[in-house]
Amino acid sequence: MLTEIEPPEEPPIHLTAPGDLLAGYLDFYRDAVLRKVDGLSEEDLRRSQVPSGWTPLELLLHLAHVERRWLQWGFAAEPVDRPWGDRDPDRDRWHVPAEQSAEQVRTFFLAQCQRSREIVADAELTDLARLGGRFTSEGDRPTLVWILFHVLQEYARHAGHLDVARELADGRIGE
Questions:
Q1: pTM for this one?
Q2: What is the pLDDT of residue 173?
Q3: What does the pLDDT read at residue 2?
Q4: Whose CA is closest to 59, among 39, 42, 34?
Q5: I need a labelling partner for 10 at 20 to 30 A (CA). Which of 45, 99, 157, 163 fits?
């Protein structure tokens, strides 16, 4: 049985400042991802619904690391431990260790999103990523606006993946 949920509102339609629009849509999708995993049992969070084998909890951890890799380590060149911590190197796929709870993953995700917001608030869209973190040469440094669009498309794509996983898990759609 399908249960349709009213989706949240997008950013205001008259918003024209590119930075505000990007920030608004990033928060819209961050919220969408959390709504899609909220209410799933621990078992459903750790169970794959698709042949490729990823789980909703693995996807949430992946998005936390996307934030971290692109904004903390990438744009701000802050040192971070395990920037690819969402991957199991032996299987070359997303992974959440059994001892890491769903609440720990959610808390980590929220912390990464908050740090990303802080980094973006202190920068201009045209600023180049700093050298020293993810980017080590002048020629490979993207602008903040490029990074934000990249992160936004990651969210849009993965929110769609979670739509399917949630529908298959318990029939909820439209979140």
A1: 0.93
A2: 81
A3: 47
A4: 34
A5: 45
